[in-house]
Design goal:
By secondary structure, the chain is of the alpha/beta class. It has 11 helices and 8 strands. It has an 8-stranded mixed β-sheet, sandwiched between helices. The two termini are 32 Å apart.
């Protein structure tokens, strides 16, 4: 392992630990940052190492060594010397912009400042920095170990050299990189989920049958309502609202979707969304 390869990952929710494990698996030493302590972070890292290890054929010893390459910190300044930054915090432009401005000043040796956003404007995030040429979106999909795509989302200021670094890193992770200005997947997928919510609300069929129809009829591995539960209904609503601002009212969230969010039925992470889940099991 090349000890000079350091990566900073921000966020200990759904995506951050997966990104950290993935980068540690290809030889990076990773500093995993969250603004406050995450008491369950070690179990999350072990969980994702197990799942990725099954795909990669890692031994228990290899998995343990990969976990050892990840250092968890609540000090942003611990990321100062990293060469790669991958951010996966809450989808809120008002939070991301000042964070990237701080990272831009804090990490002068970083060749890449990436955000995992799937809907926010990359150019707006880049504009908060003094070096917008090294900012782009690196959109991983959940779960990382079981999806083959990484969207490389470019702003007008992103340089080809920065894009090449992101593409090479995606390929090292055995992913197919797809370059675009905005997430192709979410522009198609999120409206489909919203339409499934309208269909359920109108009484077209039950949630179970709507999902069964798409799995059997369209050969989708997971139905749209189950997928919404996996993503998080609050995340789906936030993406739809962003799309509405950018592209018009056809992306307005379905009332039933908003109602579930207001009631705290956010999907798998809450134990209930369109379906119920045992929170002790995956």
């Amino acid at each position: 392992m090349n000890e000079s390869r350091w990566a900073g990952v921000l966020g200990t929710g759904v995506m951050g630990p997966q990104i950290a494990v993935s980068l540690a698996g290809i030889g990076y030493c990773v500093r995993l940052y969250n603004y406050q302590e995450a008491p369950d972070i070690q179990s999350k890292l072990n969980h994702w190492v197990r799942l990725l290890g099954r795909r990669k054929g890692w031994s228990k010893e290899q998995g343990a060594a990969i976990v050892q390459r990840i250092t968890v910190t609540t000090r942003l300044e611990d990321l100062a010397s990293v060469q790669i930054v991958s951010e996966a915090i809450v989808e809120d432009l008002a939070i991301k912009k000042p964070l990237f401005a701080e990272l831009d000043a804090l990490c002068p040796s970083a060749k890449l400042l990436a955000t995992n956003t799937s809907s926010l404007d990359i150019a707006a995030i880049a504009a908060a920095t003094q070096h917008p040429e090294r900012v782009l979106g690196l959109h991983f999909f959940n779960p990382i170990h079981d999806t083959g795509l990484v969207e490389v989302l470019l702003s007008p200021k992103t340089t080809p050299d920065t894009a090449d670094i992101a593409i090479e890193m995606a390929q090292a992770l055995d992913k197919v990189p797809l370059c675009a200005a905005e997430s192709c997947v979410n522009r198609i997928l999120i409206p489909m989920i919203n339409e499934a919510c309208f269909a359920l609300e109108s009484g077209l069929s039950t949630a179970e049958n709507i999902d069964r129809a798409m799995k059997l009829g369209a050969n989708h591995p997971l139905g749209p309502l189950g997928l919404a539960d996996l993503i998080g209904l609050d995340v789906v609503v936030n993406i739809l609202r962003t799309f509405t601002e950018k592209h018009g009212s056809r992306y307005t969230p379905a009332p039933l979707l908003l109602q579930h969010v207001q009631e705290g039925k956010l999907g798998r992470k809450a134990g209930e969304g369109f379906f119920r889940y045992d929170r002790g099991k995956n």
